[in-house]
C-alpha cells in the first residue's frame, strides 16, 4: 500500500512538472508584438483610430498581418470597448469611433485610446495607450478681388469646455487629391500665430477639378504629438473644369473601325475601288477572250 | 533558229533523275515543316523561341524576305517592259513565277506567325483601316491577284503549243485545255491580251512599291529603336529590288544548266543582270549608310543598345556578313567583266539572296531585343532569341514550298515564253537581212 502511494505521488510529480515545462515552453515560443495607435480626424467629425502592428525579426521590424487588436476609449473596460481591428498584409488597420461615444467624445478635452492584443497564439499579451488633446481646425476659404485665400484657425478644447486658440503649431494648407495631398500655397508648412492660432495664405494654384471645377481645399495638422492628425476640408470651385476626353468616341486613328477618320476611309477606298475595278475589268477581258475563242471555233 | 527548234528547246520536260530527287527533297522539307506547324498549333507558340520581347522572329523575317523577293516581278516584267529592255524576254516568266510563289508564301507565313490561326478570319470581320496590318493584307491580296494575271496573260499564247505537243487525251493536255483552249491566236485576242499586259505593267509598279512600303510601315509606324525612320519605305523597296534581281540571276543560272538553255539565257543576260545587281546593291548600300550611320553619329541613349548589338554585340557577325558578303563583295566582283560571267554571277546572286534573308532578320529581331524600357526581372530566355528547330523547320519548309511551286510550274509550263521568243526571232530576221 505504501509502495502504491509512493508510485501515485511520483506520477503526480511527473505530470505536474511536465505541465509546468510545457507552459514555460509555450511562453518562451511566443513573440513580442509592438502596437502603434494614431489619431485622425476629418472636419471635426468622430475620429478614426489607425493601428499598426510590428514584430522584431532578425534585428528588423516587420509588419504583422492578421492579428486582432482591441481598441478602447478612455478605459480598458466593456463600456470603453470600441471594437476589434484585424491587421492587413501591411500590418495596418483602422476603426472609426462608434457613434455611441459621440457625446462622451464631444465633451472630453482629453482623449485616451488603448489598444491591446490578448490571448494571441503567436504573441504575448500587449497593450499601448494614446493620449490626445482634443483640437479642431476652423477653415475659411474666400475670394476677394480675384484673390483666393485660405484661412485656418486651430482651437483646442479646454477642461472648462471652452475652445482656445492654439499658437505655434505647424499646419499645412493643401489640396486634397485621390492618393495624397498637394501643397496648395507657396510654403509647404505654416505656423499658427501666437495670438489667434491662425494662418492665412493666398491660393494661386492651377489644379484640374471635376467637370464643374470643384476641388477640395483643406488645412492639415499632420501627426502632431498632442493633437494627432486633424484635417478640415471644403469643396470649392477653384479648380480648372475638367473637359472629358471623348476622343475614343470620335473619328481617330486609335478609335474603333466604325470611327475611322474620314480621310482614311475616302482616299484608300478610292484607290482600292479603282485598282480592283481594273482587276475585274482584266478578268472580264479573259471572258471576252473565251467568247472570241468559242466564236472562232464555231466558224 | 527555227520555230520548231525553239519549241523543242523550250517545251517543259519530264523530270530527270536529278529533278525527281530535287522535288522529293522539297516535298520532304515541306512535310517536315507541316509536321512542325501542326505541333505548333497543338502546343502553341511556346514551341518557338519567341517570347515576350522577341515576339517577331524568323517567321516575320521570312515574311519580309518573301515580300521583298516578290518585287522582282514588277522589276523585270513591268519596268523592263515599259522601258523597252529587249533582252528581258527569257527572264519575264522566271521573275513572275518567283513573284507569285513568294507572295503566296508571304501570306501563308504570316498565318504561321499567328498564335491562334483559327482567329484569322477576325482580321477581316474586325478589320480596321487605321491598322497598317490591314493595309498590308489589302495590298498583298491585290499584288498576288495582279501577279497571277501577269503570269497568265502572256502564258495564253503558249497554251496552243503545249496542247499540240502534249499526249492526246492525257491529264496534262486536259489541264492545258481547261486553262487556255479558247486561245486561237486571233488578232483580236492578241490585241486584248497585249492591252491587258500593258495595263498590268503600269498598275503593278505602284502596287509593288506599295506592298513593300506598307510592309516597311509595319515597322516604321512602331516607335522602337531601329525602326523609327522616315527612310524605311525607300530602304525596303531598294533592298527588295536587290534581292529580286539576285534571285533572278540565281534562277537564270539554275534553269540554264538544268534545261540546257544556253542559247536563250546567254552571257549577255548575265552581264546585263549583273550590272543591274551592282546598281541596286549600291543603292541599297546608300540606304544602309543612312539607316545606320546617322543614328550611330547621334547615338541616342535609346538607340545605343540596338546599334551596339549590331556593330559589336551579339548580332555583329551576322550584320557585317550581310553588309560585306551580301552587298559589298557582289558589287566588287560584278564590276569586272569576268565577274559577270554566269558562274561568278550565280555565286554573287546566291550571296545577295542569302545576305538579304539575314538582313531581314537583322531588321526585325535586334530591335525587339532593345526595348525602350530596360528588361527587369525576366527569365533569361526573354533576353535572347534563338529559333527552335521547329521554327527553322517551318521556315525552311516555306522556302522549300516556294521552290516547289516554281519546280512544278517549270514541269507544266515553258519557263521561257515560246511564242514571244519565236516572234522576236522572226522580227529580228528581216532586220538582219536589211542590215546585210
From TrEMBL, chain A:
Domain of life, source organism: Bacteria
Keywords assigned: Membrane, Signal, Transmembrane, Transmembrane helix
Transmembrane annotation, as ranges: 262-284
Signal peptide region: 1-24
Protein's UniProt name: DUF916 domain-containing protein
UniProtKB/TrEMBL annotation, chain B:
Localization terms from the record: Cell membrane
Keywords from the UniProt entry: Cell membrane, Membrane, Transmembrane, Transmembrane helix
Organism encoding this protein: Solitalea agri
Name of the molecule in the record: Polysulfide reductase NrfD
Gene3D superfamilies associated with the record: Formate dehydrogenase/DMSO reductase domain (1.20.1630.10)
Sequence intervals crossing the membrane: 20-38, 58-82, 94-112, 132-157, 200-220, 232-255, 276-297, 317-336, 343-363, 392-413
PANTHER family named among the record's database cross-references: POLYSULPHIDE REDUCTASE NRFD, PTHR43044
Top-level taxon of origin: Bacteria
UniProt key word Transferase: no
Family annotation (Pfam families): NrfD
Membrane topology: Multi-pass membrane protein
Entries under InterPro entries matching the protein: NrfD-like (IPR005614)
Record family assignment: Belongs to the NrfD family.
A GO CC annotation given for this chain: plasma membrane
Primary location recorded for the protein, binned into one broad class: membrane
Amino acid at each position: 500500500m505504501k509502495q502504491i502511494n509512493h508510485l501515485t505521488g511520483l506520477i503526480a510529480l511527473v505530470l505536474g512538472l511536465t505541465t509546468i515545462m510545457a507552459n514555460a515552453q509555450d511562453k518562451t515560443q511566443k513573440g513580442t508584438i509592438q502596437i502603434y495607435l494614431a489619431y485622425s480626424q476629418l472636419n471635426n467629425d468622430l475620429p478614426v483610430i489607425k493601428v499598426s502592428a510590428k514584430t522584431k525579426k532578425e534585428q528588423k521590424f516587420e509588419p504583422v498581418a492578421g492579428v486582432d487588436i482591441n481598441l478602447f476609449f478612455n478605459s480598458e473596460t466593456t463600456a470603453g470597448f470600441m471594437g476589434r481591428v484585424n491587421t492587413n498584409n501591411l500590418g495596418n488597420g483602422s476603426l472609426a469611433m462608434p457613434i455611441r461615444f459621440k457625446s462622451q467624445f464631444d465633451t472630453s478635452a482629453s482623449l485616451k485610446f488603448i489598444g491591446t492584443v490578448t490571448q494571441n497564439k503567436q504573441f504575448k499579451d500587449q497593450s499601448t495607450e494614446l493620449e490626445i488633446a482634443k483640437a479642431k481646425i476652423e477653415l475659411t476659404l474666400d475670394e476677394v478681388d480675384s484673390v483666393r485665400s485660405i484661412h485656418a484657425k486651430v482651437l483646442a478644447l479646454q477642461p472648462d469646455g471652452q475652445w482656445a486658440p492654439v499658437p505655434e503649431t505647424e499646419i499645412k494648407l493643401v489640396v486634397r487629391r485621390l492618393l495624397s495631398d498637394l501643397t496648395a500655397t507657396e510654403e509647404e508648412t505654416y505656423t499658427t500665430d501666437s495670438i489667434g492660432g491662425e494662418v492665412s495664405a493666398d491660393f494661386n494654384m492651377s489644379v484640374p477639378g471635376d467637370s464643374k471645377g470643384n476641388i477640395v481645399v483643406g488645412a492639415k495638422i499632420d501627426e502632431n504629438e498632442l493633437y494627432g492628425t486633424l484635417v478640415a476640408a471644403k469643396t470649392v470651385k477653384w479648380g480648372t473644369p475638367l473637359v472629358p476626353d471623348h476622343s475614343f468616341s470620335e473619328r481617330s486613328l486609335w478609335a474603333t473601325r466604325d470611327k475611322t477618320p474620314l480621310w482614311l476611309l475616302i482616299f484608300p477606298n478610292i484607290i482600292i475601288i479603282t485598282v480592283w475595278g481594273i482587276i475585274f475589268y482584266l478578268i472580264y477581258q479573259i471572258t471576252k477572250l473565251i467568247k472570241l475563242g468559242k466564236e472562232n471555233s464555231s466558224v | 533558229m527555227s520555230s520548231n527548234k525553239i519549241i523543242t528547246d523550250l517545251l517543259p520536260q519530264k523530270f530527270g533523275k536529278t529533278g525527281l530527287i530535287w522535288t522529293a527533297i522539297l516535298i520532304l522539307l515541306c512535310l517536315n515543316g507541316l509536321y512542325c506547324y501542326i505541333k505548333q498549333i497543338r502546343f502553341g507558340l511556346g514551341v518557338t523561341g519567341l517570347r515576350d520581347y522577341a515576339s517577331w522572329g524568323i517567321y516575320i523575317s521570312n515574311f519580309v524576305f518573301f515580300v521583298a523577293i516578290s518585287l522582282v516581278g514588277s522589276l523585270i516584267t513591268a519596268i523592263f517592259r515599259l522601258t523597252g529592255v529587249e533582252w528581258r524576254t527569257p527572264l519575264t516568266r522566271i521573275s513572275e513565277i518567283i513573284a507569285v510563289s513568294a507572295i503566296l508564301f508571304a501570306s501563308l507565313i504570316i498565318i504561321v506567325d499567328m498564335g491562334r490561326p483559327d482567329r484569322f478570319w477576325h482580321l477581316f470581320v474586325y478589320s480596321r483601316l487605321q491598322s497598317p496590318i490591314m493595309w498590308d493584307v489589302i495590298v498583298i491580296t491585290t499584288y498576288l491577284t495582279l501577279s497571277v494575271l501577269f503570269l497568265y496573260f502572256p502564258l495564253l499564247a503558249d497554251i496552243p503549243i503545249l496542247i499540240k505537243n502534249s499526249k492526246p487525251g492525257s491529264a496534262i493536255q486536259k489541264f492545258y485545255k481547261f486553262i487556255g483552249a479558247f486561245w486561237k491566236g486571233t488578232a483580236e485576242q492578241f490585241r486584248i491580251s497585249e492591252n491587258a499586259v500593258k495595263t498590268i505593267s503600269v498598275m503593278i509598279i505602284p502596287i509593288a512599291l506599295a506592298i513593300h512600303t506598307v510592309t516597311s510601315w509595319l515597322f516604321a509606324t512602331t516607335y522602337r529603336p531601329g525602326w523609327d525612320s522616315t527612310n524605311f519605305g525607300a530602304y525596303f523597296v531598294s533592298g527588295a529590288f536587290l534581292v529580286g534581281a539576285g534571285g533572278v540571276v540565281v534562277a537564270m543560272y539554275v534553269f540554264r544548266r538544268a534545261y540546257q538553255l544556253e542559247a536563250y539565257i546567254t552571257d549577255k543576260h548575265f552581264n546585263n543582270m549583273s550590272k543591274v545587281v551592282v546598281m541596286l546593291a549600291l543603292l541599297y548600300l546608300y540606304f544602309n549608310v543612312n539607316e545606320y550611320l546617322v543614328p550611330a553619329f547621334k547615338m541616342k541613349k535609346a538607340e545605343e543598345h540596338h546599334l551596339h548589338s549590331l556593330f559589336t554585340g551579339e548580332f555583329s557577325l551576322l550584320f557585317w556578313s550581310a553588309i560585306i558578303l551580301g552587298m559589298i563583295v557582289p558589287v566588287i566582283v560584278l564590276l569586272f567583266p569576268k565577274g559577270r560571267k554566269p558562274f561568278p554571277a550565280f555565286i554573287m546572286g546566291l550571296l545577295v539572296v542569302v545576305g538579304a534573308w539575314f538582313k531581314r532578320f537583322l531588321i526585325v529581331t535586334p530591335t525587339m531585343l532593345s526595348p525602350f524600357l530596360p528588361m527587369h526581372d525576366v527569365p533569361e530566355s526573354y533576353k535572347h532569341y534563338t529559333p527552335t528547330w521547329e521554327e527553322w523547320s517551318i521556315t525552311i519548309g516555306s522556302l522549300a514550298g516556294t521552290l516547289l511551286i516554281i519546280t512544278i510550274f517549270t514541269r507544266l509550263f515553258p519557263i521561257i515564253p515560246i511564242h514571244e521568243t519565236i516572234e522576236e526571232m522572226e522580227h529580228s530576221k528581216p532586220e538582219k537581212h536589211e542590215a546585210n
